[in-house]
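Checklist before submission:
- one chain only
- standard amino acids only
- sequence pasted in full

Submission:
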Amino acid sequence: MKVNLSSNEVKILKLLINNSHQYLTRDLLNTELDLDFLSRSGDMQISRLRLKLKKECNLEDLIRSVHGKGYKIFL
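Returned file contents:
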């Protein structure tokens, strides 16, 4: 199965997998993607990544958000 991901979506997926033992904070996400700290762009990219994984791979709830902590991948 092949899913077309943007370069930032690939970076996000790698960050989540490489840090699967902890939460990926919005600050770390924005730093790694070189985004403005006040921007919600990283959140939007995670949202699009979730939709693609759900639609193309039937992987729902693979990436979860935890209020006040960040994002985590559940493999």
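Reviewer check: The chain has three helices and two strands.
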